[in-house]
Every structure is written in C-alpha cells, then in structure tokens.
C-alpha cells in the first residue's frame, strides 16, 4: 500500500536569516504600581492606598531586530504607552475615601534577547527577556500623587511568529517590572498642603505593566 506525505508550503522561508529587519506594533496594556505603605498616623489619620481596578491603555511602537544565530536575535522596540492609574485612599479609622487618577504616558526603550524555537510550518513560538528605560511625558504636577519622570526595569515575554506570504504577524505578551522607586516625595507643587498626606501615606511605589501587542514585521 502506498502513502503520500505532503509538507505544507512555507511562507518566506529565509526571512529569519536577514541580518536586520524592521516592523511596528500596536496593542494594549494595563499599568499598575506595587505600593509600600508607611502605616504611620499623621494628625490622627492613617491612610492606605490601592488600585482596585485597571484601565486598558493604548501602545504603539517600532521594532528593530538583529540576527545573531538561528535561535537568538537582539531586539530594540521603542514604544509609547498611553494610560492611567486610578487610586483609592482609605482612612483606617473613619473609612473615609478619597479617589485620584494619575495619567502616565511612558516612552520606553526596551532592549531584549529573543529566543525562537524550531519553526513548524508557518509558526514559530518564542521567548524574550531584557531591560528597559522609561520616560513619563504625561505626568502633571498638582495631583495628590506625583510619579517621577524616569523609570527602569526588566521584562519577560512570550509570543509566536506567524509567517504570512508578505510579512510576519506576531501576537506577543510581555510583563514589565520596574526596579526604581517612582514615588515623588518632595511636593512643593501642591497648593493645598492638606493633600500632602496622600503622598506621605506611601513610602515607595514601583511600576508594573502587562502589555499585549500585535507585531507586524
């Protein structure tokens, strides 16, 4: 008995061998902060803060990729993230609440190492890890909370290259972990000095972000 085996035609079979290739990405993200509280009463009040829910933000950027070997490549992906964070402050004794919204538009410069598995027909999953620097161009003085303009951290991600006839489409999920304390404690910008108690309630804040993008390369 004879059997016939057919192999699926591969789109762009040599695209990954280019020394450099470029692209762009669009997607969504969610901003978060890991908050450390003082827990120290000030004028008889003890305030605690939380971010009870996350608002989706919009992300857009460009991609530069340099081939290193059949499995590894070096990637630079300058990106702008438009988003915000909604805080709820609660006073421990009375249960009084105060809500504040902080807008952060981050310009980030991630540098990642991408590890790609063996290609299976027109699919190739990958992992990536690296570090990033960030500049907040959306911060506004006078808010109850003010975040510093500079941040940096590490990131990890997973994705899959889907080879189409004319380009690669790559859904990608990344987790970003800030390493710097981005809480601004010196607040001469506050006209209402009673608002200082909300900054004083916290001793540290480090950024977190989950990013889902769709890459076109």
Give a quick precis of the structure:
Helices cover 2% and strands 58% of the residues. The chain has 217 residues and is mainly beta. The chain has a single domain, classed as Lipocalin.
What this model shows, in words?
Strands 1, 2, 3, 4, 5, 6, 7, 8, 9 and 10 form a ten-stranded antiparallel beta sheet that branches. 26% of the residues are buried. The protein is built from one helix and ten strands, in the order βββββββββαβ. With 217 residues, the chain is mainly beta. A hairpin with a 6-residue loop joins strand 6 (97-116) and strand 7. It is elongated and about 70 Å long. It has one domain: Lipocalin.
Keywords:
about 220 residues, mainly beta, Lipocalin, ten-stranded antiparallel beta sheet
For this entry, what is the oligomeric state of its chains? single chain
Q: Given the helix and strand composition, which structural class is it?
A: mainly beta
CATH architecture: Beta Barrel
Task: Give me the number of helical elements.
Answer: 1
Q: Gap between N and C termini, in Å?
A: 45 Å
Please write out the topology:
Layout: E1 20-37, E2 47-50, E3 56-67, E4 72-76, E5 79-91, E6 97-116, E7 123-136, E8 150-163, E9 168-178, H1 196-200, E10 202-216
Antiparallel strand pairs: 1-3, 1-10, 2-5, 3-4, 3-5, 4-6, 5-6, 6-7, 7-8, 8-9, 9-10
